[in-house]
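How a chain folds remains the central question behind the approach discussed here. The record that follows shows the chain in one-letter code together with its fold in token form:
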Amino acid sequence: MSFGQAASRRTRDIAGAAPCPCGSGDAFGGCCGPLLRGAPAPTAERLMRSRYTAFALGDDDYVAASWHPRTRPEAVDSLDGPRWTGLEIVDIEAGGPADTSGVVEFRATYTDAGARGVLHERSRFVRQAGRWWYVAGDIG
């Protein structure tokens, strides 16, 4: 399973003052919330975190919109996906505001049918026309 292929279909609202699901320690309203509403991600890491949050909240539209059109599947449907429970950023290569590409390695924990699991992925990102896009990931 790739993080780009699985999500949680439990779409729910989250208060702006609530802790952000991405685990940054910031409030949702000052972290991933603005990105999920359309603000551009300033770095590959921020896009990664916002994509995790979208997966955790079941926001398939954001997941699809943040996926590079060249590699995006025809549809993102997370109806039967796992429940995402935590994100740990392991490594970051480039992906800053002035870069054109970056890699974010992460571990995302989940539960699925009562079993716990960890997805370990190195995600590749590109920045084109001032916008970061998720391209693909390699499962580790």
